Amino acid sequence: MAGFTLYHNPRCSKSRQTLTLLESHGVTPKVVLYLETPPDAKTLKALIKRLGLPRAHDLLRNKEAEYALAGLKADSKDDDVIAAMVKYPKLIERPIVVSGSRAVIGRPPENALTLIDEAK
After folding, report:
1. Are 3 and 28 in contact (CB under 8 A)?
2. Tens of pLDDT along 64-115?
């Protein structure tokens, strides 16, 4: 099955589990190692929209040290949050699976099954 993208961190167990789940269902995703090749602001905005998140802050890993370094807070503006994710890609929740106009966060990895079912 084609047309899937996985924003992947190979050091993350959930990310590895999501990749394995995709492959076990015949999906060979385009793998984006987002820590090495961070998405730009335009891509992050598109991902947030595809995920159906009401605000950029909902895509953050707010327990990371970079959250404080970026000066982020629960009420930070979307543009500030997106700028921080571009600068510190470690802040981006992972993994993200994209198919067509939709995306899911692979926590738990089984969330990706909805995209696989829709692609059939």
Report:
1. no
2. 999 999 999 999 999 999 999 999 999 999 999 999 999 999 999 999 999 9
If you compute the radius of gyration of the chain from its CA atoms, what whole number of angstroms results?
Answer: 14
Q: Which of 12, 31, 53, 113 is catalytic?
A: 12
12 is catalytic: yes
What's the predicted TM-score (pTM) here? Answer: 0.95
Contact 107, 13 (CB under 8 A): no
User: Cα separation of 74 and 63, whole Å?
Assistant: 12
